[in-house]
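Minutes, project check-in
Item: structure for the 287-residue chain
Input as provided by the requester:
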Amino acid sequence: MSSLAQINTTEIAVVNFKSVPVVTTEMLASFYGTETIRIQQNHSRNLKHFVEGKHFFKLIGEELRNFKKAVTSFKIVSQNAKHLVLWTERGAARHAKMLDTDQAWEVFEQLEDCYFHRQDILAKTHKSDRSPLNDAVNMLVAKTKHLNFSEAYKLVHQRFNVQHIEDIPFETIPVAVEYVHHLVAMFSQADKNQHTNAKNIDAVARHMLWLNHWWSEFGATIRKLSPTMGHGIHDHFTFGAEDARQIVGREVYMPIFELAQKHNWHKGGLGFKQLQACGAINYSVKS
């Protein structure tokens, strides 16, 4: 996350949380020419005017630990901090109004123009920011015989609901790396020599692949209706489909993929006989 903004004569790094530009209490006090305690007092004395998620974010636990790692180089958060408040544009505006000084209003206008409204820049990460994720994807492709780079990156795009890898927010990159490592572990630990009940395994794999294509068609809409439920079930489709690809092999999952691309999802389902006809029927787990 290397975007910079100039406030007065000082260049500062733009801090981003959940794709939203934010400032710490200490940063805000410094910008407005006041003491940190004044910002804290204005908050505590006017709690009804500050809504969490709208005017500020409060970080604790794992969320705080991940944020500390993401902004280590900025040196804006004490490693001993047990909690952290991050102010959004609306929160910064409330504090400017409460302080009501010329400096506070003047600096807020600069923050508004140069810091908070740079979504077109902040939405994308720099190539160096994505190095750990690219390394993880390289490892994933090397570990599996069934994924090329395009397919591997498509998994990441689907998981984080983005069109391009650079659209993944900076603070989400560690989560994306962990997700790809999970895929690597899944492929590495898969038992490729299982032959028990191979016919049923093949059938289940074909069903799973078809369900995953259904999810690709309607999953984004479901995630918009209920993000918690949508993201929770997404991994089951994704990991299930990856297991299925290992089981049936490319000669089966690619014909199913082509069938899914032509299928009209709004006019009913598809019989298993059509799935069974896709590719060579081989009732043994691929090794």
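Outcome recorded: The mean pLDDT is 83.
No further action items on this chain.
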